[in-house]
Design a protein that fits this description.
The structure is a single chain. The chain is an all-beta fold and about 425 residues long. The protein has two helices and 31 strands. Strands 9, 11, 12, 14, 16, 18, 19, 21, 22, 24, 25, 27 and 28 form a 13-stranded parallel beta sheet that branches. Strand 5 and strand 6 form a beta hairpin. The chain is elongated, with a radius of gyration of 23 Å. It starts with 9 loop residues before the first strand and ends in a 53-residue tail after the last strand.
Length: about 425
Amino acid sequence: MGAANISALAEGSSNNLSISGGVASFGSDLANNIGVGDVIQFDSDGNSSVDEVVFIHRRYSSASFEVRLKDGAIPPDLVLDNDWEIFRAYTSINSFILGQENSGIDNGVSDFDTWTSGKNLVTSNEELNFTLYADNVEDLGGDGMFNSFITGSTNELNIFAPYKYEHVGISQRHMGKWDERYYTLNLTASFSNLFVSGYTNISGLQIKTPGGLDQVKFIVVTNAEEVYVDSNIITGSTDLGNSSAITIDPSQVDYAQVYVTNNIAFDISDDNSGHCFGAYSYNLPTLKAYFYNNTAINCQAGFFIGDSGGNANFFMENNLAINSVENDYTGSSLLVESSANISSDATSPNSSFRNKTVEFLDYNNNDFRLSSTDIEAKNTGTNLTGKVRSFDLMGHSRLTDSGWDIGAHEASTNLFRSVGQGS
């Protein structure tokens, strides 16, 4: 998906396309921002008319891509076609949810997704990837109902900004700090949320509001079975109350598991009960909610666990909360397990991690990656190997140093070179 981008990303007037064994090869390199999820329309029978589409499934190089038909099958071979163009499949989040394909794609081949409000991925027995490209900042004036998709344990919905070499030639995902050159979503209306549910993974997004809005909850996890909210950066004062960056809603499926990991939320404040990260317990004894390695900066409240008579299981490890308007942590007595959670006040559930001052790369310019010279969060976290992926929000391993860092970012290690006499 490329926000508001109906134009072709590349075309074949002087660049031959061939397909062999499910691999599309081009005579010359394509732009590095072309990657997984993009649509190639072409002339399959040599009559100079577009009559087929394939989807990029994997990137091998700027001139070589694994491709598949809309049903996941390997396409027939093709020899030296020049009547091709590449497009983003969709031009907004809601066009994807509603099955309204990019209008720039030829009418004869554009109706490749037939749903009108999400899809039952279990019935169709497929896993669906929704890739988000940084063509433009996307404005969303309402809810993004990703919970319209029915998912299963082997039929997941994956929503992500691509960054790996096998996905795209140049990262579309942030580099650990706010930067609108990478995929960014702007929520422009009060009560706007992205709803995720079932078996869904959402990662690598930047989400903001312009301010002055009421009850924007950014990402809301509801009716989850196994949901991962990972490596997102969220910001924007909403002013009018009860707002949050990431919230685990009380409406969940029995035995739901929700993992909130490696996210940064900053400058989210209002005049009533807002927070950066939150979860609520409403008679859900089987819910397990995990908050691991998140960073909350300048929020109304950093981490909030609300109890309304439920018995859900909440886990909180390696989180970092700084400079909250109210408390950095609220509801810590409801935690089943907690360790190495830093606060700048006296509210951390772990007494030895209270009243800490953490050094970031550039706090004043909203770069909340951990400084390599920090002594409070660097290498002082709990090793969560086996509980969660051993990577930070930039995809860097947490196992390259003497210990896990606290917060969303794993700091680099200073290297010192010793030069002997006479060298």
